[in-house]
Automatic annotation (TrEMBL):
Coiled coil: none annotated. GO terms for molecular function: DNA-binding transcription factor activity, RNA polymerase II-specific; RNA polymerase II transcription regulatory region sequence-specific DNA binding; transferase activity; zinc ion binding. Its main location: nucleus. One of its GO terms (cellular component) is nucleus. Residues 618-686 form the R3H domain. This is Transcriptional repressor NF-X1. It is found in: Nucleus. One of its GO terms (biological process) is negative regulation of transcription by RNA polymerase II. Pfam families: R3H, zf-NF-X1. The lineage of its organism: Eukaryota, Metazoa, Chordata, Craniata, Vertebrata. CDD domains: NF-X1-zinc-finger (cd06008), R3H_NF-X1 (cd02643), RING-CH-C4HC3_NFX1 (cd16696). It comes from Oxyruncus cristatus. Residues 11-68 form the PHD-type domain. Residues 14-66 form the RING-type domain. Residues 702-730 are annotated as: Disordered.
Length: 744
């Protein structure tokens, strides 16, 4: 009725397009939930990926009840499905044909069809009356057709139960009668034990000798009347006495027939109690204590009854087969000892995880499964792997948050479910965190707690408070000295107050995130140019992130020719000698890689800094030089033009030693990876790499031998009146720190 009213007044909305369903619009009605949709809307919905069932093979789902259908509706029909494209009639229900519905009702046992006009929604219950019997079938009643309630009378059922002996005592009920609940007493086959079972069950079956086996020795008298049955409680009659004369044909050991013994004068047996004649031979029956390879036999003479315990010894191996011991016990004790004997050897094999050892005593396992919990941190960095210890990488963290993950300002949102370890979303809005200064903020919203330095350009004093420079970054503090226009590296005597100002570049260099400039030396000896230039503050601010990652900035366009000339150093005598040798080599057409004057092989020159570092760890330097010499010899003797060696991760001081030694040996050296796993890879090139005649360790040994003994400490009198003597403290030299490890 509600559907008819809403469709007639055009107040019913389609769930797909949320528009009103018009009287003349083609529609489709779901036969499960009876919702009405526009025909075109349901066609589009059925073809969309969102409508497909989860398994992908059950068709498309109804938007309202999620009932899956295989066929997509194509034509516009009335509600009963008889008429295609029904025409609208003012006196009839919209989208109906005006004829009798005629559809089968939902009730399964109702044979009558729907007798009202074509309508939306489910068909009403059947109004007809029929005669139905009760559950037990003893009485009949007139009820409405399609009534779901069962009819039950007050009479006792009375049907025969499964046992076939008793009747059902329940009141009129539906379905089959319950099994008989009465119990009967049963006796075992040998008659010594009893038990109670349900009447009509399979256990109630009896073959006339009993109903079940008690698993004890039967014990009944045999047909001879003198011996008892030694079999386990059994259903059939007991066997004949095994000692009857008509049953026994051989001696107790089974080697000689009794007929042959009778010929030799033995007495013939009359009854089962008469002794069985013995043949006098060795019994020879196999005993149970032997192994598959060596069978132990009874050594007694032919006898009746059980054999005596074995007098032989046996080797018992532990279960893993590593150790053995000698057994002097009988058969039964031999089996017990074989089961319980274990050696004390621990298994050294790796478990299935590849991380832990088995360590089981007397191990016989073939798979060596690891029973420990993995415990490694997952990719989220918050939780640990709870699976058994395994090989390879752990699975992705299965923990999920159902809270929204937002950036700091809340503009960018990741909606749940959010996998564990997900980083906050990137936000392009300006940072809204509180800052130390009042300058405008130019960086975006970020998830880090600390904001990047302020890049606002301001005015700052130099270190010596001599002059103010404009256009300086806010975060540079007062360690600003790039603004001095008359800076000279080698000649700073013209401004004595500015010496400390200009030479404070080391203090500024300690700020690892700040780029000072590009340094170089130019002379005929090293073919390098030493420059010290100031860089525009804006260039520093824009390239700061790239410089932290190890990139460089081209500053050749920021300097002038005058500054280039002023920064050039004067050559000394050694530079002039090398320049003269180079000119002579060019005149004589001698290759630069050759060494005609034996200059390179005359002995390497180690820097004082390298010697000082080597004295701190001589063993490390000795191992490094040994590896470099072996690498150079291998590349010079081998077929390959290059050979490389990778050192394990080490600290920065050790890497610097390797770089400086590599220059002496003519070896290429490069650092890879980030801290703390940063390592050095050296590469020797044939014809270029050499082994110096004097190693660094040998040079240090010679210096130690030629060094004079340490001087006696000088004491001075500090107080003449008291006569006390004090030891003057030596001046503490400031350590030289190399902040520019170019190779590393």
């Amino acid at each position: 009725g509600s559907l008819i009213e809403q469709l007639t007044t055009e107040k019913y909305e389609c769930m797909v397009c949320c528009e009103v369903v018009r009287i003349v619009a083609p529609v489709w009605s779901c036969q499960n939930c009876y919702h009405v949709f526009h025909l075109n809307c349901i066609k589009k919905w059925a073809r969309s990926p969102a409508s497909q069932a989860e398994d992908g093979n059950s068709g498309w789902r109804c938007p309202a009840c999620q009932n899956a259908s295989m066929q997509v509706p194509k034509t516009y029909t009335c509600f009963c499905g008889k008429v295609h494209n029904p025409e609208w009639n003012r006196n009839e229900i919209p989208h109906s044909c005006g004829e009798l519905c005629g559809k089968k009702r939902q009730c399964l046992d109702c044979p009558h069809l729907c007798n009202i006009l074509c309508h939306p929604g489910p068909c009403p219950s059947c109004p007809a009356f029929v005669t139905k019997s009760c559950e037990c079938g003893q009485t009949s009643h007139s009820v409405r057709c399609g009534q779901s309630t069962k009819i039950r009378c007050s009479n006792v059922c009375g049907n025969t139960l499964n046992c076939g002996k008793h009747s059902c005592t329940q009141v009129c009920h539906a379905g089959k009668c319950s099994p008989c609940q009465l119990t009967v007493q049963q006796v075992c086959y040998c008659g010594s034990n009893f038990k109670e079972v349900l009447c009509g069950s399979k256990e109630e079956f009896s073959d006339g000798f009993g109903s079940f086996s008690c698993q004890n020795i039967c014990g009944k008298k045999l047909n001879c009347g003198r011996h008892n049955c030694k079999q386990v409680c059994h259903p059939q009659p007991c066997q004949l006495c095994p000692r009857l004369p008509q049953v026994v044909y051989r001696c107790p050991c089974g080697q000689t027939p009794l007929s042959k013994l009778l010929e030799l004068g033995c007495v013939e047996r009359k009854i089962c109690t008469d002794p069985i004649p013995s043949c006098g031979k060795t019994c020879g029956k196999p005993l149970s204590c032997g192994s598959y390879e060596f069978v132990h036999t009874c050594e007694s003479l032919c006898h009746e009854g059980d054999c005596r315990p074995c007098s032989h010894t046996s080797n018992i191996y532990c279960r893993c087969g590593f150790k053995k011991k000698v057994n002097f016990l009988g058969a039964f004790l031999f089996l017990i000892a074989a089961i319980t004997f274990m050696c004390d050897k621990r298994c050294n094999k790796k478990r299935s995880c590849g991380r832990h050892k088995c360590n089981e005593v007397c191990c016989v396992d073939t798979e060596h499964k690891c029973s420990l919990v993995c415990g490694r941190k997952l990719n989220c960095g918050l939780h640990r792997c709870e699976e058994p210890c395994h090989r390879g990488s752990c699975q992705t963290c299965w923990q999920t948050s159902f809270d929204e993950l937002t950036c700091y300002c809340g503009e960018s949102v990741i909606y749940p479910p959010v996998p564990c370890g997900t980083q906050p979303p990137e936000c392009k809005k300006t940072c809204t965190r509180p800052h130390d200064c009042d300058h405008p903020v130019y960086h975006s919203c970020h998830s880090e707690e600390k904001c990047p330095p302020c890049t606002y350009l301001t005015q700052k004093w130099c270190m010596g408070k001599h002059e103010v420079s404009s256009g300086q970054l806010m975060y540079l503090n007062i360690k600003q000295f790039l603004g001095l226009s008359r800076f000279r590296l080698l000649n700073v005597g013209d401004c004595s107050p500015r010496v400390s100002c200009c030479l404070s570049w080391r203090a500024l260099a300690s700020e690892s995130w700040f780029l000072i400039g590009k340094l170089g030396l130019y002379c005929h000896k090293l073919n390098l140019i030493f420059f010290f230039f100031r860089i525009a503050a804006i260039s520093i601010a824009t390239k700061l992130t790239d410089l932290q990652l190890g990139d460089s900035v081209e500053i050749s366009r920021l300097i002038t020719k005058k500054e280039m000339k002023q920064a050039r150093l004067q050559c000394d005598e050694e530079c002039l000698a090398l320049q003269r040798n180079r000119r002579l080599a060019e005149a004589l057409e001698i290759d630069d890689n050759s060494d005609p004057f034996n200059i390179r092989s005359s002995g390497p020159k180690y820097s004082d800094v390298l010697k000082e570092d080597a004295r701190k760890d001589l063993k490390f330097v000795s191992d490094i030089e040994k590896e470099m010499r072996m690498l150079v010899e291998a590349v010079n003797k081998g077929k390959h033009t290059k050979k490389s060696h990778c050192y394990p991760p080490m600290n920065r001081d050790h890497r610097r030693i390797i770089h400086e030694l590599a220059q002496v040996y003519g070896i290429e050296s490069v650092s890879y990876d980030n801290e703390p796993k940063r390592n050095v890879v050296i590469t020797a090139v044939k014809g270029k790499s050499i082994c110096p005649s004097n190693t660094l360790t040998s040079v240090l040994d010679k210096e130690m031998q030629s060094r004079p003994p340490p001087p006696i400490p000088h004491y001075k009198q500090t107080d003449k009146s008291s006569g006390s003597i004090g030891l003057s403290k030596p001046l503490k030299e400031e350590p030289v720190i190399d902040y520019f490890d170019v190779q590393d």
